[in-house]
Amino acid sequence: MNAAEQATNLELASKIATVVNLFKADFPDARVDLKPWANDPDTRELVDPNSIDISFNFPGRSRLFQSRCILILIRFHRDTLSNAHRAVGMEVAGFDHQGKQWWLSTIGDWNFEGATQPTPEVSHQLKHFCQQVLQIFNHGDKSNTQ
Q1: What is the extent of the structural domain holding 114?
Q2: How far is the C-alpha of 49 from the C-alpha of 44, rounded, in Å?
């Protein structure tokens, strides 16, 4: 679900802002989009209400990322007894004019897959970014990180 729609309280809005700032600290050329999903019925049907989705767009196709746009989905599990949300993983994908070029899931082996991949340095930075994001949403709980 679009990050802009998930920022329903000060704590969550602050965490989303922290995620954006972390990404932009490493990649200052990226422009953030807190509403990467269109607001039409077909798209709405596919959106996961238990996620926070953010995209970052580059001025052109990035050689380092092998893409022009990065979509980040932070997945949550809601404990129905306590109504608490816990980040269970992230999916990161790079897109260009030809579609999805690569993806990374923190659920499993944390390996990049796809037709192309970011450079080794950017791959390392993205994995570190994912570790930080999971820690932010799990209040320092490092059990989800590699």
Answers
A1: 3-137
A2: 9
Alpha carbon of 67 to those of 24, 31, 64, 75, 124: distances in Å? Answer: 16, 14, 8, 22, 16
Task: Give the pLDDT mean for 75-95.
Answer: 79
Give residue 28's identity as a one-letter amino acid code.
Answer: P
Place 142 in a pLDDT band, splitting at 50, 70 and 90: very low
CB atoms within 10 A of CB 102: 20
Supply the mean pLDDT for the chain.
Answer: 85
The SS3 assignment for 68 reads: strand
Domain count, the chain: 1
Would residue 14 count as lying in a domain? yes
CA diameter of the chain? 46
Q: Residues for the chain: how many in total?
A: 146
Q: Report residue 73 as tokens.
A: 């989905």
CA–CA separation, 58 and 27 (whole Å): 9
Alpha helix (H) ranges present in the chain? 3-6, 10-26, 41-46, 120-137
Higher pLDDT, 51 or 139: 51
pTM of the model: 0.84
146 found inside a domain:
no
